[in-house]
Design a protein that fits this description.
single chain, alpha+beta, Jelly Rolls, Arc Repressor Mutant, subunit A, three-stranded antiparallel beta sheet, disordered C terminus
Length: about 260
Amino acid sequence: MLFYKDDICIFFGTLNPAPHSHHALEISIGSGSPLQLYMGDQKPVEVQACIILPDQQHRITIDPEKGEKITLMVDADLPLIRAVTNHYRTRKEFFVPISLKRIAPFITQILEAKNTAVNNNGANLFKLVKEMLDFLFPDYDKHPMNAQVVHMTRHVKQNITKNKFLFKELSIELSRSPSRLSHLFKEETGISFRKYVLWTRLKTAVEAYQNGNSITQASYISGFADSSHFHKVYTDMFGLKPSLPLKEYTKTPGRSEKMIRLNE
């Protein structure tokens, strides 16, 4: 089951992805069973819940016979997430374990809200997730993004249906050399301009799919050259074929709830 709104994605399920990276801060929680976390080429670490910084290659698995994952992805451009990311990157921490005891009240409510989420488009879920984010990150200094980079991100979002972006035109418009502008963009966002365009296309395509379009139509609406390009980008960024999690957008009937062990 998947929900997406206001740059927040919420996914419930047992799908175990291939290694991937995406431009979102991820919070993964094991419901009923611990998670196995793989960061890059490192050996797996067992965690109850964890935070993964944006743009880090990772893989998180769970035993589908024992539980399911609650995965929250929050876009890295949001001021709070940028502040959190900068804080942990400065400390050279790219994943942070979370104690279930600390977030147990939120997880209990999220699992309860899941049962009625399809009927209200996940409104209660998103409210609870935002409350949990405020609880986890209460005092982070939200420095504004560089004005020229803000202009570039806004330009991408406003023109995402176009098949190509001319970076040279942006550099002329902003009176910066392409190399300097490219460096500035990556310094501020953590990813290249090209990958940012792909990430924005991907978000636009997922939203279009949830609004009733086919995957082929969603690919076209978001500016991908074709559906095969969308499939490749989706797989690289989420570690799964889009037909798997997107098909789980509707509630899976007959699945029993496996509540997390809140005393751990």
